[in-house]
TrEMBL record:
PANTHER family referenced in this protein's UniProt entry, alphabetically: PEPTIDASE M6-LIKE DOMAIN-CONTAINING PROTEIN (PTHR41775:SF1), SECRETED PROTEIN-RELATED (PTHR41775)
Low complexity bias spans: 29-48
Region (Disordered): 29-52, 579-599
Record-given protein name: Uncharacterized protein
Top-level taxonomic group: Bacteria
Keywords, sorted A to Z: Signal
Length: 697
């Protein structure tokens, strides 16, 4: 281990005058043409840059800065690479504590020793000799100075076995979400996510005239278009064409629109909080189709579990939608909404029954978003279907969770996702659970390399990255970073100029309440922190399989779909449970507590402040500053493009600390040891430079 332990000098300033501290704690990111960091000197020319005098020593209060290493490779950052220790000492009180991680109180300013150019602690640095001034403010302000070197290091171009390992969907087939009843969002017996899956689309009306379809032929036409049309036959996509593209051809949804079922009750007499009415209607509609229309339900049971694979109820009603913004589900306690739930019927392989159902308002399928229709005397002529809602709910039909928060005070996943705000494509975590994609895993087989990602939505290409000290468990159910190159193409294209549902002028006027209100307008790198570690009960057993102690519920690296017993090793492990969620009140630690319980899917933006955790998160929806990218790539010919188009080009622990519950560490306690920088970018590819920051002990 290299150490750079220097008492250059330290100074203490009584009171709260923090001019010196403010001067060194600048924000912002590099715009250097070499793609290295460097915040420069504002309006000063390079020739006038000077390095401040070192701090003045105090005999009473001081900090001592020690670097784990004082020599790091080019492309690394000061904080992640040198890994400073900052120990504050107060001789008056006898206090001594480590304060390097107190990022609201401890600041770092880096100077190029030759040019005096100023850098931030999370800037990727070019080769050179550097000086770092560290300041700590706790009523008093104290400082210390250290020096370090950045050595020129040429990255290799990654290839299989040198930088990453490629997995296939066959490798992950056993970990398909539908194999795990306790991980799948609504339990078992959901709709299959691969193969030729036929579903039933059942239009439902009520006995009162105001809750009946006015034109049955039009209803059938609209629903067939919304659910089963080919690309180009709808204003956007149908449910079927969307999922065929999103799954890269692995899921082919077919089926039929049934005759209209009339539920013999006036909808004005139904208690809107009684959502069990939806499953009652679905069950009765299925029985009616069997007995009155001779339906053979076995053709709708691809996985032969005795349940119809998917029943999508689209109902007419005289009742208004709940007074909610955003997406809702059964937990909204309002029947007249859109949600996915389970019926309680029994399994019957010969004559399958209702199980997983989607309950949707007809007016949410036939809104005028992306419409080419015209209203003509009580009906619409032309295309007017919009399947965004049914696409989202079909994600639940197959077991995917919601990524928005039901607590309504945060938006951790960043909103640009089909299972968040109903726009664009599904992210790679969802697709990996559906077994549509598999990652390239950065595995530590190279420490300094470049790697190129293709458009994620077009190819399914993505990276999974973990600390090298904690290898991936080779399942979707682990903690890791997920990197995918977003492009406004394919399933993202239609929404990239904004989706009508999210276009709402703010109260002050002139701007959209929901930011851009759609998928991102231009390409950029998306980074997510995924923590979907599963938990299970582990019980000690003897050679006869008899329990010899209490079961312990804790995280597992071997998530199992069924109970497993190993009498030789002396334990049995139960099936894996999903315990993390994007709604804080629903996310739990293994001990059942919710305090600091991990978020399942957290978008990491380039800013140092996690603005997805505030009640104004919705104003960030689709903003380009949420993405990593090169300023040199952005479309400078567009007059509406502003300086600072991307939020930044470098990911580091220091930059992302506010997005991690444990600050500079993963939720499992491991330290992420990669700096990732965007170095090249085109319309459909992005090249990243990885530098490992592990320091040998």
């Amino acid at each position: 281990m290299k150490s750079n332990k220097k008492y250059i000098t330290a100074w203490a300033l009584l009171g709260l005058s923090i001019v010196g501290l403010a001067a060194c704690d600048k924000t912002g990111t590099s715009s250097a043409s070499t793609n290295t960091g460097g915040s420069g000197s504002g309006n000063s020319s390079e020739s006038t840059l000077t390095i401040p005098e070192p701090p003045i020593v105090s005999n009473v209060r001081r900090i001592e800065v020690t670097l784990k290493t004082d020599d790091i490779p080019s492309g690394s950052t000061f904080f992640d690479g040198c890994q400073p220790s900052v120990v504050y000492t107060d001789d008056d009180t006898g206090e001594e504590e480590e304060v390097y991680s107190r990022y609201n109180m401890t600041s770092y300013t880096i100077y190029d020793a030759e040019t005096a150019e100023v850098y931030e602690p999370d800037d990727a640095l070019p080769a050179g000799h550097y000086i770092c001034d560290v300041y700590y403010q706790n009523f008093y302000i104290v400082g210390d100075r250290v020096e370090f070197d950045v050595t020129e290091a040429t990255p290799i171009e990654a290839e299989e076995g040198k930088g990453f390992k490629t997995y296939t969907t066959e490798d992950l087939a056993d970990y398909h979400i539908q194999n795990f009843d306790k991980i799948e969002t609504l339990g078992g017996h959901g709709m299959p996510s691969s193969g030729d899956v036929d579903i039933l689309v059942v239009p439902v009306q009520f006995s009162n005239a105001a809750a009946q379809f006015k034109n049955p032929d039009e209803v059938k036409t609209c629903l067939e278009e919304a659910f089963f049309a080919e690309t180009g036959e709808t204003p956007w996509e149908s449910l079927s064409s969307y999922y065929y593209k999103s799954s890269y051809g692995k899921l082919n949804i077919g089926g039929e629109v049934t005759p209209i079922y009339t539920y013999p009750v006036d909808d004005t007499t139904i208690n809107s909080s009684d959502i069990s009415v939806s499953t009652t209607i679905a069950t009765q509609a299925v029985n009616w189709l069997k007995t009155e229309h001779g339906y053979d339900m076995s053709k709708y049971d691809l996985d032969k579990d005795g349940y119809i694979d998917g029943i999508q109820i689209v109902y007419a009603t005289s009742q208004t939608t709940p007074g909610m913004s955003g997406t809702g589900d059964a937990s909204s306690s309002d029947l007249w909404w859109n949600f996915t739930t389970n019926a309680s019927g029994s399994s019957n392989v010969r004559s399958p029954n209702a199980r997983r159902i989607f309950w949707s308002r007809y007016d949410y399928v036939t809104n005028t978003y992306y419409s080419s229709s015209e209203y003509n005397g009580g009906y619409y002529e032309g295309k007017r279907v919009d399947p965004h809602t049914i696409i989202h709910e079909t994600g639940h039909m197959m077991g995917a969770p919601d990524y928005y928060s039901y607590d309504r005070t945060e938006g951790p996943a960043g909103q640009v996702d089909m299972m968040d705000n109903n726009v664009g494509d599904h992210n790679a975590y969802t697709k990996m659970m559906f077994n549509w994609v598999a990652p390239r895993v950065v595995d530590g087989s190279a420490k300094n390399f470049t790697i190129t990602l293709k458009s994620y939505t077009e190819t399914g290409d993505f990276l999974l990255v973990k600390p090298t000290s904690d290898p991936w468990n080779e399942t979707p159910y682990d903690e890791y970073l997920m990197l995918q190159y977003y492009t406004p193409t394919g399933l993202n294209e239609m929404d990239h100029e904004g989706y009508a549902e999210w276009q709402q002028e703010s109260a002050s006027g002139g701007s959209n309440t929901y930011g851009h209100g759609g998928t991102y307008e231009h390409p950029g790198l998306q980074i997510y922190h995924v923590d979907t570690r599963a938990a299970s009960y582990v019980t000690p057993i003897d050679e006869n399989g008899t329990a010899t102690g209490e079961a312990v519920f804790d995280y597992t690296d071997t998530p199992r779909s069924d109970e497993y017993a190993d009498r030789v090793a002396g334990f049995k492990e139960g099936e894996a449970h999903r315990i993390h969620d994007n709604t804080p009140s629903r996310s739990h630690n293994p001990d059942g507590t919710t305090r600091k319980a991990p978020t399942e899917l957290q978008a990491v933006f380039p800013s140092r402040v996690n603005s997805t955790g505030t009640s104004s998160y919705y104003s960030l929806f689709g903003l380009m500053t949420n993405l990593y990218g090169l300023e040199s790539y952005r479309e400078t010919g567009d007059e509406t493009t502003k300086e600072g188009y991307y939020g930044g080009d470098t990911f580091s622990v220091y930059q992302a600390r506010d997005y991690f519950t444990n600050g500079y560490f993963f939720n499992d306690g491991s330290r992420f040891d990669w700096v990732i920088q965007v170095v090249e970018q085109t319309d459909d590819t992005i090249t990243l430079h990885f530098v490992n920051t592990t320091v040998a002990e």
